[in-house]
Amino acid sequence: MTTTPTVLDGPSGAAPAAPSPADRTPPPPRKRRARPRIGTQAFLLVLMVAFLAPVVWAIVSAFKPANDIIRDPLGFDPGSFTLDNFTAMFHDVPIAHGFLNTAIVLVVKGAITLFFAPLAAYAFAKYDFIGKNVIFGAVLITLMLPTIVLIIPLLLEMKTFGWVNTYQALILPGSVDAFAIFWMRQVISAVPDELLDAARVDGCGEFGIFWRVVVPVIRPGLAGLAVLTIMNIYNDFVWPVVAASSDRMATLQVVLSTLAQNITGNRIGADYATVTGELLAASSLALIPLLVLFIVLQRHFINGILAGSVKG
């Protein structure tokens, strides 16, 4: 009987052992080639310059002598720095009163929006009732109506109540708008129902569930809505100029729109350079609150935008 010899490798004549799993090192991962971002950064830089250049020019020109703004619009001599435009503007234009009216409307109307819009959105997001989808659809339909279509009916309503040229006319119409309800419904829809059920088991009432459970969870969405609401109220012009036509109730945007007439009416012989200088001074002051607001709440605004993009 013939046997087949076993072929042995290695100096000791033993068969080679299979490599253990620990000795099997994976191949190094391939390095992804970084995509060139120079073009993207250059494009964003151009956009930043395009957006900021007019703002920077307006602020810098507000500190220039009025004649220099017309004579050399793009130049700036630090030695010619002056506050004359601001001093004259405060003397000729009731901008402080416009700031006060805007602040009152902003605080009250913003508080109403941030309280009642999440409540309505909570009902649409977490409760089932007859006609829920029909009512919510009717709310969304109002988003399609242009503001100009609603001015005449709202103005007639304010006249019926005797609210023309009052804070009620500036505050109540549009306090709880469809966009705020839709925004908060999208945010609240992402809140797990298990949290609400656990609160009910613990004996918490329905409003307590909203206030103690839902509100802390949706805080980023509320912050985003707050920024958008403040910007809309602060920049609103069409409704205030119609509902509050008197100088006593004029908001900041209405004061800015009539600034040229106020300057020429309060100062005899005011020329184009004077009007331009004071207009730039007033615009620079009006820009400061929104600029500070966005810088302070930038992180919350971005988080709110992301929270509001959740699919309900």
TrEMBL record:
The chain crosses the membrane at residues 42-63, 99-122, 134-155, 167-188, 209-234, 279-297. The keyword Transmembrane helix applies. The keyword Coiled coil does not apply. Residues 99-297 form the ABC transmembrane type-1 domain. It holds the Pfam family BPD_transp_1. Residues 1-34 are annotated as: Disordered. Keywords: Cell membrane, Membrane, Transmembrane, Transmembrane helix, Transport. It comes from the Bacteria. Its main location: membrane. One of its GO terms (cellular component) is plasma membrane. One of its GO terms (biological process) is transmembrane transport. It is found in: Cell membrane. It is a multi-pass membrane protein. Residues 14-23 have a biased composition (Low complexity). Belongs to the binding-protein-dependent transport system permease family. This is ABC-type glycerol-3-phosphate transport system permease component.
